[in-house]
Amino acid sequence: MEIGQPFSAHKIFIGSFIPNALMKCKDLSANAKLAWARLSQYSGVKDVCWPKQVTLAEEIGISERYIQKVIQELEDKKFIKRIRPTGQDRLMHKSNRYHLLWHEVFEAKPRQEQIDCSVDEHMGVSDTEQ
């Protein structure tokens, strides 16, 4: 997989709909992470989806105007590629198409350390209780 290559997030990541690598990305707003997760879900096994902006806004709890800023953020930071309708599609008021893009944050290795809860006798105890 190459950086910038369209891909399907379906069954690639373990955990929530927001991959851990994306959750840890400090350069992306929380709403952008939610929007990315929703676009990923709409994409399913494909690398493209076409939900209406009003639908995305309603589903993640923000205004239609704000979802436009969030989509622009995802596009500016190369997490998605937006294809605007042209010609007949534009005249028919078709939705934008969104491609998920493979991003460098997904290249990071997952943390290898495992926490063994049975070893630490102070697990779940605050510093003041020890």
Explained architecture:
With 130 residues, the protein is mainly alpha-helical. The protein has a single domain, classed as Arc Repressor Mutant, subunit A (Orthogonal Bundle). Helices cover 34% and strands 8% of the residues. The protein has five helices and three strands. Strands 1-3-2 form a three-stranded antiparallel sheet. Helix 2 (30-43) packs across helix 3 and helix 3 (53-60) packs across helix 4. The longest helix is centred in the first third of the chain and has 14 residues, at 30-43. The chain is globular and about 45 Å long. The relative contact order is 0.18. It holds the Pfam family HTH_36. InterPro entries: WH-like_DNA-bd_sf, WH_DNA-bd_sf. This is Helix-turn-helix domain-containing protein.
Round the Cα radius of gyration to an integer and report it.
19 Å
Mean pLDDT, as a whole number?
Answer: 82
Helix and strand composition category: mainly alpha
CATH superfamily: Winged helix-like DNA-binding domain superfamily/Winged helix DNA-binding domain
Q: How is the CATH topology named?
A: Arc Repressor Mutant, subunit A
Order of strands, widest sheet: 1-3-2
- What is the helix content? 25-40%
Number of strands: 3
CATH architecture level-2 label: Orthogonal Bundle
Label the overall shape.
globular
Protein name: Helix-turn-helix domain-containing protein
